[in-house]
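Protein modeling request. Please complete all fields; requests missing the sequence field cannot be processed.
Requester role: graduate student
Desired output: 3D structure, token encoding
Chains: 1
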Amino acid sequence: MPQEVKKITILYVEDNPDNRSLIRRVLEAENYTVIEAINANEALGKLENEKIDLVLMDINMPDMDGYTLTAKIKAIKKFSTIPILAVTANVMRGDREKSLGAGCDGYIQKPIDIDTLSQQIERFITRSTNV
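Delivered output (131 residues):
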């Protein structure tokens, strides 16, 4: 009997519907399950009610920015080991460090290179499942 491959579930926190649609298509084509949240409260609810393996976190959101939300998630013990990757158009010097300082485990800049996105995610999934 073939061993069942565990399907990875990614929470994508992003307020822009076009970005959500693009990333969903790319990730679902790579056999990931994608759950979307359009703001901080929705993201926290999805974390509470779903089995999330990784979070893609938009940094520039209207209600609570991704830095604040990341710090909030990392402060909750049961979520603290879930990898969070900042997804941002903030690419000035220091922005990557600010993302990592807020608790993000990695940094993906916009516009997202859809050809390398799944490889970037795979690196963090592998890391977190080998712990």
